[in-house]
Amino acid sequence: MGVKVKKYKGSWYVFIDYHGQRKAKKVGSREAAERVKREIEARLALGDLSALQQAKPVPTFSAYAERWLKTDALTKCKVSTANFYADYQRRYVLPQFGDTELTAITRDAIKGFISHLVERGLAKNTVRLAVASLRVVLSAAVEDGVLASNPAAKVGQFVQTEKPERQAIAMEPEEVELFLAAVQEQCHEYYPLFLIALRSGLRQGEILGLKWGDFQFGQDEDDTNRYIFVQRRWYRGSFSTPKAGTARRVDMSRQLRKVLLELRDQRLMQAYQQGRSSIADDLVFPGNREGEPLRARLVQETCTRVLADARMRKFRFHDLRHTFGSLLIEEGAPLPYVRDQMGHSSIQMTADKYVHLIARRNVRFIDRLDTATSPQQSATQAQPIKKHPVQNGSGPHPQVIDRKGWCERGDSNPHPLRDQILSLARLPIPPLSLFEFFSSIQ
Fold it and tell me: Whole-angstrom Cα distance, residue 31 to residue 28?
């Protein structure tokens, strides 16, 4: 009588023999079988016989993930996040684990899955997101009691790839002006869109989701109450909240205000001709399909074409956002302000992305050391030292300090104790040190 772990036909089983009741349970690995054995022994010791009851069939990953996407994902995730999980599971996870029972997915199998993705030459971030789309389903299975633990927990250390991650780069100020001039010349209808990216740092989906009611232009260009209220984004065919989950206010530059006002007036004129009096709910950058904005791929293709025609180095559209943050830092904007404008979830994220720019700007302090330590030729000739006249051989005249109206800079009320210290200068004997003075008056 008892609980034993045995290997049978290449698989590990937990065999239970309790007062004549017998049952065998197939478990993925020996480690998992030993863990299940301990749990069953503990339950039996407490009189819990549920382990002997007929077990429910274990769902496959495909069946469980499909049910999870229709239930938990819709209540616990944003629509865009749920769509992302579904996409990565379809592309990477289901081909590997779709027909596998959840209890048969082992840690070793997940390590092999990671190795397979790396061998395909996928970027490290792609592999990481594929594992995340697997892990989130297995975590739900743990919460539902289907799994005792998540075999995909803490496997990020195994995600290693030689393919370098794509780092965001920023345009120099001269490149910004060259790029905007090229856009104005080649495709002027896209000029407001690219100017928003470079002057406000909005993400591509946030720009495509803008409506005219999101702008506060102020009374004139000198009115500082001019901003863009970012409250939605267009992502994977639907509108949702911004990436950080909250709306934010992004200040608007004078140049951007002027360009957007001109575009708004054109759209208002078109609306009046159609018999409409308001465009507050109209998209700023509508696409060919009614109710949908421009396609993101079209925006990126336009950006690439303009850069090539202007013979500039390659940039992604997202690099325009990074350019905005970099230029703000270069102008001396504080990190909390940059964080709020960019919509980062924490100031740590802002620091990680842009603190190297602050360090580059502070190199001027090192340059000042050259001036401070380099020997310099004085333009003024050394003056002879004048000796104090001697009266009756008694020594030099004592220094006289006018107490009337004297005060240290920033202090208009001289203290009596300070006066006592200053009065020592009138004595014909060497003044006491502060330590000796305070010791003498105690």
Answer: 8
CA gap 425, 324 in Å, rounded: 61
Closest among 42, 37, 47 to 16, alpha carbons compared: 37
Mean pLDDT confidence for 197-206: 94
Asked if 47 and 65 touch (Cβ cutoff 8 Å), the reply is no
Report residue 219 as tokens: 């009374």
Q: Pull the structure tokens for residue 216.
A: 């506060």
SS3 of 24, please? strand
Query: Is the Cα torsion angle 190, 194, 199, 204 positive or negative in sign?
Result: positive
- H or E element in which residue 229 lies: strand 227-230
pLDDT digits over 135-172, tens only? 999 999 999 888 888 999 888 666 665 555 567 788 99
Residue 385 is classified by DSSP as: P
Q: Which two tokens stand for residue 4?
A: 């034993």
Reading the block at residue 355, the tokens are 């603190």
Task: Convert the pLDDT of each residue in 222-267 to its tens digit.
Answer: 999 999 999 999 987 888 888 878 899 999 999 999 999 999 999 9
Rounded-to-integer distance, Cα 13 and Cα 349, Å? 47
Dig out the tokens for 120 from the structure.
Answer: 């395909």
